[in-house]
What we know:
- By secondary structure, this protein is mainly β.
- It has 1 helix and 16 strands.
- The strands form 4 sheets. A 5-stranded antiparallel β-sheet has the order 1-2-9-4-7, with no helix packed on it. Strands 3-8-5-6 form a 4-stranded antiparallel β-sheet, with no helix packed on it.
Amino acid sequence: MKKITLLFLTLLISSIGFSQNLVVNGDFQTGAIGDPVESWGGFKNRIAVDDITTSNVGQVENGDGSLFHLIDVTPGDTYDVSFKYRWLGSGSAANAVLTARVKDELASGRPNLDFTDNSNGYTFSTNLDEWLTADFSVTIPSGVTKIRLLFFKPNGNKPVNLDDVSFTKSSTASLENLKQFNFSAYPNPVNNSLHISASENVEKVEIFNVLGQKVINVLPNSSKTQLDVATLSSGIYMLRATINGKKGTSKFIKQ
């Protein structure tokens, strides 16, 4: 019991800290205008000045091109990814095709990792000449220790600017996203039943083990629900809840 309590306290203490951005030069402030983006790989990319924000950005140039960043990760952990982007120019939205992916850098062929919404890529909006914000999360599977955050654009597409790219480890602090809904999950630690409550209907509840495997997936569509976790092995799990399209995550201990 002392060991479980110590683990819980460790999780609680670590959750109140700020998550470090694992992307180096994610705001593209390092490097000379016109040069390839420092600390990033890829082809046909450069540091540019956006004519709307007048700040430095990473630009994937006209036609095909890419930007990628290598990041060391921990299996079983969940990471939140966010960035801003803007397609340059006008005309056909058919020439605005780009998908952001997270790939297993050390596996043959660099397979795509699935995001927590079960997709394996974030498809950019085709809206032209406006800054948009993107975000998604990915839970790292067992055996994966290095990933490639990749922005790839095939030939025939317009230039695109990127800014404020962030890759941070998720923590219980993200429950702030659901604070407005009075969300709670209890007890913690738990033996058999995990109770979920909120002031509005909870659309989805997902539970992942430390290997990043989804072990429970329910669609309550209710403000109160009860999850049977009796058959789960003892250990640490991550709970992700969705309310009105907003997601929050927390960790709990199964005794």
